[in-house]
């Protein structure tokens, strides 16, 4: 073949023919290299692609559980008071800045109970820093609500987008069975939920409600109260066992008697279908949250327990991410990215409103009528 090519080359002896053969040789070499690369792709590109996605921190939406201390004693608590550690606020702000530089657009402050630390000042100052300095799209808090005050809203409410209250039942006896109360609480949980909802509306903050479905409330019909409270989002979680937190034995909590089946969870959801709850089954909950703990470490829930990474404060976001697993599909399935900014400006009647989110849950009377028709 080569001999033949050379013979032809000499015969032609024209420069145009030489260029043609050079071009042919180049094409041949390129084709061979391309073929070899494709043959090698499964063994190289496959693992490279997996490692790459596993190593890239996905920190769009972060849950910062900055304290484990709490004044309640819920039996299924997923984040128990194993330590009393608290990162100084300057360090917490530095950590948040690192997360923002790595792509964070939303931060949720959680606990423990966020308002227990410095009577809400700690969380208030972090909320302000996240919104005013870091200019995050969304700054939110999850709280049991018992320590939330009007004064706090006056001081920090303008920088908060959403406040979520945990309320598992509208029967106080059930809340007490669950432990969703404090011995010396000034108000019971149902009253707390209504009070915080009113404060949120007054200060232009979206109100959210979280409910953990367990053996004590699984048969409850919450329609009337949810329809009245009109949360922008009602998240409904299936009680989840996490080793090291609530699985009994050495754990601070034992939620084994509160666990429900998938069918029971489905029945609860079906009963409240008219209210469009955002459902989180055990499988969806497990890894679809980016959790940062009180030491500013990622918590990785791969083996049924939460394993901490190195601290973001020491290693940076990418360095700490390591083997952290993030379930992007689960994040999407539970509508992890939603309309997460505060309510629209107050209207002429002085009432804050946001049609796009509140419209998700129809007017109280419409819901109650629909439920009545279903049961007739
Ligand atoms: S309110 Fe209940 S679930 Fe939340 S941190 Fe406190 S004890 Fe845990």
UniProtKB/TrEMBL annotation:
InterPro entries: Aldolase_TIM, Elp3/MiaA/NifB-like_rSAM, RSAD2/Viperin_antiviral, rSAM, rSAM_sf. One of its GO terms (molecular function) is 4 iron, 4 sulfur cluster binding. CDD domains: Radical_SAM. It comes from the Eukaryota. It holds the Pfam family Radical_SAM. GO terms for biological process: defense response to virus. Residues 56-279 form the Radical SAM core domain. Gene3D superfamilies: Aldolase class I. The chain crosses the membrane at residues 18-36. Its cofactor is [4Fe-4S] cluster. Keywords: 4Fe-4S, Antiviral defense, Iron, Iron-sulfur, Membrane, Metal-binding, S-adenosyl-L-methionine, Transmembrane, Transmembrane helix. PANTHER family: RADICAL S-ADENOSYL METHIONINE DOMAIN-CONTAINING PROTEIN 2, S-ADENOSYLMETHIONINE-DEPENDENT NUCLEOTIDE DEHYDRATASE RSAD2. This is Radical S-adenosyl methionine domain-containing protein 2.
